[in-house]
Amino acid sequence: MMENIFGKNLPELTEVVQAMGLPKFRGKQLAEWLYKKSAADFHSMNNLPKGLREKLAESYTIERAVPSAQLHSADGKTSKFLLSFADGAGVETVLMRQPYGNSICVSSQVGCSMGCCFCASTLHGMVRSLTAGEMLAQTMYINDLLAEEGQKVDTVVIMGSGEPLLNYENVLKYIRMLHEDYCLGMSYRSITLSTSGIVPNIYRLAQEELPVTLSISLHAPEDALRSELMPVNMKYPLAEVVKAGREYGELTHRRVTYEYILIDGVNDNLRQAKELTALLRGQLASVNLIPINPVAERNWQRPAPERISFFARYLTDHHITATVRREMGNDIQAACGQLRNKHLESR
Fold first, then answer.
1. Active-site residue among 32, 92, 134, 163?
2. Pick from 210, 4, 219: which is nearest to 119 by CA?
3. Which residues pair with 71 in a beta bridge?
4. 273-305 residues labelled b (16+ CB within 10 A) or e (exposed)
5. Which domain holds residue 275?
6. Last residue of a domain, one of 61, 85, 105
7. 148, 239: one domain
8. Do 48 and 154 fall into the same domain?
9. Is 119 a catalytic residue?
10. Does residue 205 sit in the same domain as residue 333?
């Protein structure tokens, strides 16, 4: 079985060409063909020696993401893609056309093991982690679509299906490749990683000296409710998660974002607004309030608009930076896991 070359970084590609008896600069050329020029086959790489192209074709494949399904919002601003890989596994990737540029939400695992009770990604359990190449393939698929319009991917959010910090090595390799000039040349500050709170790897990420934005899913200001909503809280309690977030901000000088899904009658009352304020006071942080995108299997509802405004206003009035997430793609069920689940059920 031939090896997939897509997803190898420059040092790995340099090893490939040097093993074939060629100088290392051929590795940079190969990288640019794969990631800047989106070459689908080796024979089109016309500045590589013919012998190298033939050897590569004998030993490697170029496996990119293949679309299985897609949905587009009525306003044309949000598109969701179900992208499949060689083993048939599928993940969701979302394109959001924001005022500040094109943002994509990338999945890091097929399915999810975290068991958050408001999320569709976990309904069919965890299948496997994605490779760095498979995360990059999601990005490149959308970047190629945008290139046809003279545009590109401007920001990346690793917030799709899966827990990125449980796929640490592959996620870090993917982030580093996004930054390389032979790939997208993206600023680390244009990349956000979202975690449910895997405390040891929050500290580990802080030591990487990569100024990526960290987003932590909080969703409750006290342990009993957070454990009910997010089973991971039983392993990494709220105080430990917030302490890790505080230290991440101090070490990286990057503002940490705390995600807080607002669920009607569950976590949206005055007492909880007060508890959340006390929990985050004095930290280099902001709160992103997310009215829940209802999932049929979960039976949760979003609060009324005035309830959402009240919660946001209370935080702001008490010196906690808070925003309500701009909703995009509700008409195409853009929340994580919904398109994949529909596809699995139809099969």
1. 92
2. 219
3. 80
4. bebbbebbeebbbbbbbbbbbbbeeeebebbee
5. 66-346
6. 61
7. yes
8. no
9. no
10. yes
CB atoms within 10 A of CB 54: 12
Residue 311 and residue 273 in contact, taking contact as beta carbons nearer than 8 Å: yes
Task: Output the furthest CA–CA distance in the chain (Å, rounded).
Answer: 70
| Domain final position from 38, 61, 84 | 61
Both tokens of 284, joined, read: 């280099």
Which is the catalytic residue, given 105, 112, 119, 336? 336
The domain spanning residue 52 has which CATH number?
A: 1.10.150.530
Contact 33, 162 (CB under 8 A): no
Residue among 62, 17, 26, 66 at smallest CA distance from 42: 62
Q: Which two tokens stand for residue 33?
A: 């063909």
Q: Is 336 a catalytic residue?
A: yes
Count Cβ neighbours within 10 Å for each residue of 168-187 and write b for 16 or more, e otherwise. bebbbbbbebbbeebbbebe
Asked if 201 and 259 sit in the same domain, the reply is yes
On whether both 261 and 338 belong to a single domain, the answer is yes
| Alpha-carbon gap, residue 239 to 233, rounded angstroms | 10
Domain count within the chain? 2
Q: Using only C-alpha atoms, what is the Rg of the chain?
A: 21
Q: Do residue 223 and residue 322 come from a single domain?
A: yes
From first to last of its 347 residues, what are the pLDDT tens digits of the chain?
789 999 999 999 999 999 999 999 999 999 999 999 999 999 999 999 999 999 999 999 999 999 999 999 998 899 999 999 999 999 999 999 988 899 999 999 999 999 898 887 767 788 999 999 999 999 999 999 999 999 999 999 999 999 999 999 999 999 999 999 999 999 999 999 999 999 999 999 999 989 999 999 999 999 999 999 999 999 999 999 999 999 999 999 999 999 999 999 999 999 999 999 999 999 999 999 999 987 655 678 899 999 999 999 999 999 999 999 876 656 655 455 555 445 444 45
What torsion do the CA atoms of 323, 317, 239, 171 make, to the nearest 10 degrees? Answer: 20
Task: Say whether both 44 and 74 belong to one domain.
Answer: no
In whole angstroms, what is the distance from residue 279 CA to residue 258 CA? 11
**Residue 160 and residue 19 in one domain:** no
